[in-house]
Sequence to fold (318 residues):
Amino acid sequence: MTARAKVLVTARTFQSMRGAPWEILEAAGLEVVTSGLDRPLSGVELRALLPGTVAVIVGMDEVSAEALEGADALRVVSMNGVGLDRIDVAAAARRGIAVTNTPGTNAESVADLTLALMRRLPQHDALLRSGLWKRTAGRELGGQLLGLVGLGRVGKAVAVRARSFGLALQVFDLYLDLKFCSEHEIAPSDWQVVLATSDILSLHLPVTADTARILNETTLACMKPGAVVINTARGELIDEPALIAALTSGHLGGAALDVFSHEPPIESALWKMDNVVLSPHLGGNTREAAVRTACQAARNVVGVLTGGPVDTLVSPGK
Fold:
């Protein structure tokens, strides 16, 4: 590895911290530079910053084929998080650029938020701060049927917490860990049953061609009347106009959303609905998770550049 090779950091949380993640890169003899911007970069913006860099640590930036045209020395795109839907992995592979991510580093934090959103606590805080003493009746979690859509690391962490609150559990996932389901008394089910019977439906899927807008006009109509939707995964999993329609009609009892199809979100009817709780994509935004994620992203860079082990290699590159 060339001494003082340049690593570009565009991930906002990584840029905002110092300490261990930076030390991992600097101990490997790398020069760290940042975008200096507290927002995701477009493909055009990223392309202009890539020349001369051997690695880039990205967040919600657009790592498109166009952006990678500026990659004259790039060997690795290290995602400071899990989602790869904004990274053109195939384009990176064609250029021999490795792609890595950090699955599991924020699972506990996202699971914590998921359970908190089920009680709609942020909504009541906002009402009181606006001057309204409005005591709407909620529901106890115990005894309700929670439908988990996706049983990866976050889904499993939610399941463990949900059991301690007395929720009954059922799950839909094409690749089920049956041993985990047995240990935690989770009933594997099919998609239509989970839709039709869950009191609370919680999404924990990546965005793919098969899962994009998995909740749409048709599937929302199949949900149990009065059910609540929780989404702490990816905004693109839900057709937002269809969700608004289901909430407006009263078919759904509520929704809690930490993620949106456009971020920051475009103002919509969701903002004014009293049966909706919104939060700004902060599920994994705890100090502990941020440090774990950034350290793993940094270790992934060093691993690829030195030929060392990389536990979370998505695409190997050269």
Remarks:
- The mean pLDDT is 92.
- The two ends are 14 Å apart (CA to CA).
- The domain at 6-104+286-315 is CATH 3.40.50.720 (Rossmann fold).
